[in-house]
């Protein structure tokens, strides 16, 4: 076991132990044949720390998969809070509903099925969201950022996963490149330079691969 793996294991044990509902969400995902591309326990705990920092009462997630990150997020809310997650796959959404149900947090959660870019305009009456977590199709990240700004308030926190990609998301792409890493580069660049955002992308390594969150705080309008 590498030093990074040992340190990650110790940190998970101390700060982010998984309970039965989180473990069962992973089992359910596997049984349903879903890809194992959920966040890590430490990333889940970091979302909860950020939710506490912005006193989150309403959280929006783009990209639910099997509800693993959704459990971390919904649990960071008070009982009267609202967690909305957007998922394009009806099959994934069904697993999400079951996972949230097992975690006994369905009362504060809403699973909306459809392409996020179609659903986001329908959320304006439910905004502002205090925390927005972006973790869906990468080419749409720049558009998700536009929507996150529309659906947030000063002090809201916007988190986007996979913004390092072993450094590829930090390399300026060739003109006309419309791929995932090009969009992630655009996302990094936009958040680094946007006048209403204070942002950072944080490298997180599992010993083999370095990826990580981009974290942005929405500033008041000047
Ligand atoms: N946040 C999840 C977690 O950590 O447990 C992982 C999400 S997974 C990386 C990405 C999810 O986004 C998949 O379930 C995929 O079906 C969904 N997705 C992809 N494109 C989407 C779109 N256009 N709108 C909504 N969801 C989308």
From TrEMBL:
Entry keyword annotation includes RNA-binding: no
Keyword Oxidoreductase attributed: no
Pfam families: Methyltransf_3
Keywords: Methyltransferase, S-adenosyl-L-methionine, Transferase
Superkingdom: Bacteria
PROSITE patterns, per database record: SAM_OMT_I
GO molecular function: O-methyltransferase activity; S-adenosylmethionine-dependent methyltransferase activity
InterPro entries documented for this protein: Cation-dep_OMT (IPR050362), SAM-dependent_MTases_sf (IPR029063), SAM_O-MeTrfase (IPR002935)
Cited CDD domains: AdoMet_MTases (cd02440)
Protein name, UniProt field: Caffeoyl-CoA O-methyltransferase
Organism (species): Thermosporothrix hazakensis
């Amino acid at each position: 076991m590498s030093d990074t793996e040992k340190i990650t294991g110790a940190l998970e044990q101390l700060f982010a132990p998984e309970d039965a509902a989180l473990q069962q969400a992973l089992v359910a995902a596997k049984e349903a044949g879903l890809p194992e591309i959920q966040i890590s326990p430490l990333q889940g705990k970091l979302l909860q720390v950020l939710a506490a920092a912005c006193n989150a009462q309403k959280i929006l997630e783009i990209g639910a998969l099997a509800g693993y990150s959704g459990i971390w997020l919904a649990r960071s809310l008070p009982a009267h809070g609202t967690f909305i997650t957007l998922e394009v796959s009806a099959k994934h959404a069904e697993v999400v509903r079951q996972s949230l149900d097992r975690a006994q947090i369905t009362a504060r959660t809403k699973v909306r099925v459809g392409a996020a870019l179609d659903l986001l305009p329908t959320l304006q009456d439910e905004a502002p969201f205090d925390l927005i977590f972006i973790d869906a199709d990468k080419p749409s990240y720049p558009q998700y950022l536009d929507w996150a700004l529309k659906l947030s308030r000063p002090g809201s926190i916007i988190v986007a996963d996979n913004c390092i990609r072993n450094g590829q998301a930090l390399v300026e792409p060739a003109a006309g490149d419309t791929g995932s890493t090009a969009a992630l580069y655009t996302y990094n660049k936009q958040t680094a330079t946007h006048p209403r955002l204070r942002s950072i992308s944080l490298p997180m390594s599992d010993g083999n691969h370095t990826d990580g969150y981009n974290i942005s705080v929405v500033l008041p309008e000047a």
